[in-house]
Amino acid sequence: MPRRAVVIGAGLAGMLAAAALSGHVDEVVVLDRDELPDGPDHRRGLPQGRHAHLLMSGGLAAMEDLVPGVSMRERLLAAGAHEIPLSSGMLTLTSEGWMHRWRHDGPRMITCSRALLDWVVRTEVLAHSKTEIRTAQAVSLTGTAHRVTGVRISSKAPAGDSATDGEAVLDADLVVDAGGRGSRVVRWLEALGVTGIPERTVDSGLVNATRIYRRPEGAEHFPLTVLHADPYASRPGRSGMVLPIEGDRWMVSLAGTRGGEPPADPDGFLEYIRRLPDPILGRLVSGAEPLTDVHTSHSTHNARRYLEKARTWPEGLVVLGDALATFNPAYGQGMSVAAQGARTLSRELDRSGPAAPGLSRRVQRRVATVVEGPWATAVGQDVWYPETRGGAPKAADRLVTRYSRRLLKAATGSYQAAAALWDVSSLETGPSRLLRPSALLAALNGPLLPPLSGPPLTPAEQKLLDELDQTAS
User: Fold this and answer.
1) N or C terminus of the chain: which is more exposed, having fewer CB within 10 Å?
2) Rounded to two decimals, what is the model's pTM?
3) Model confidence over 131-186: pLDDT tens digits?
4) Helix (H) or strand (E) segment spanning residue 441
């Protein structure tokens, strides 16, 4: 008997879930309410889509596993994405000072627009799997508290599916909700009789403001530059970055927590850049040509649905990506967590098959462990900002923060400390990496190099920055 899987959401998590399912069922149907663009264009259903996105090496590795025979890295780079070595290709101002740059190799990340990344992934998954995308709105789940049997959708379903009252029921052996921040899965489960699911939201009030610029001539190899916010300064956090994206462009993205939000008008945008803790971003963009308006987004809170703690869990349902947990985008881990969640689904399907009893519950519990580290990182910092809603530092937070700040201080001038942080932030290893003897010793020793008074520019980079700087004119 043919098996069908239905995925709710055609974003990154949804398409990677389709890739995971494709080798185990006869048909994969992906539902999305948006008409998807034919190329790398922004779509309305992605509130953070116009802002900075970083694909960490741990997330890229998961993508490579999910689409065998396809190098997602090569496809992205061929489409114009950039690959940035964390050790040498970045200028980074942390809450503990400027990071030194190192010649040692280490994790790399991919930078490009979210529209490009989604388009490349969607194109490759459709080309290398038996996946169909339908434009339809998921309305509810069908089935019982013990088994989900399909999805009730809007009446755009093709002939052959049972339809009543302007809606259609799309039967499925396995349903994956990858519907993003707006997922209504908790409400849908309650309608089936699955109740008591804990939820938590931690909201620093972060606002993103982003503008695209033409990259100045000669700046092709200027490092990605990021000024991180300081969660521990007892004032609103302000941050900014200039990162290369496809099409010879720079994405300039600013962020501020409640009370320090960046404005949406062009003059205010530039003034905000100039008031960041270091003038380098203002100097970089002072003479650059803007190509877009300033776009803002308030969809930045951390939210988690603890589905793995439900007393009962129906067979035939898995929840992945932002539908399970959303993170403050300032930490750049959401896409990679979604990819690793889809890989978790794939590995469990490989191990036991789509009809194995308890499959959905096992996947849900294992995906929760993927979420835990990035969630702790995001929430552990956001609770320190003034006026954060949904959490405040507790005794355990204070203890963890003392160590993490000491390790970060060491990382400004210690390769061993920096490497530990890169491994974790890239999702190549879990948080336990920070407690290995090498990391503990690095934290104890502190920075081995003297602190930097400014960004660690090469002479050629300093010359270029001086040439680009029009802030004094």
Assistant:
1) N
2) 0.94
3) 999 999 999 999 999 999 999 998 544 444 444 447 899 999 999 999 999 999 99
4) helix 437-445
